[in-house]
Fold this sequence. Notes:
Layout: H1 5-22, H2 27-48, H3 70-100, H4 109-122
Helix pairs in contact: 1-2, 2-3
Amino acid sequence: MTVNLTMAVVLAGLYAVGFYLLMQRSLMRVILGIVILGHGANLFLQVAGGPPGEPVFAGTALIEAMVDPLPQALALTAIVITFALTTFLLALAYRSWALLGHDEVQDDVEDRRIRAAERRREGMDESDEPDAEPAEAVAGFEAPEASEEVPR
């Protein structure tokens, strides 16, 4: 089996764009990243299936000329899973938009508290990081006082 260079480049591009969008803070970009990754997975399964061949019916073609139906079945399954995940994420994004008025994923207050406690333990100030915001400024929540003991 030979590797088609064009398909390899297209697959690499789809996966790169999909993972890049998946790492963004906007929920719509995350959803687009998952959709693009789903398309990349479908294309990968079709490329892995090999070149087209004869349908798999007993007695209609030589065994060497028949195509493997498993990648096609896996691609159909991947399409259904991607569609279900996309509709679920779209519902979550709509709910987030309705409640908050934006689709930006915010930092968790507890994560900031743990990060600040670890910095104090290491002897660093919170002001060492240039983009550090006070924990109270995140999502309008008031952060609890950080204790010296960090739960694991």
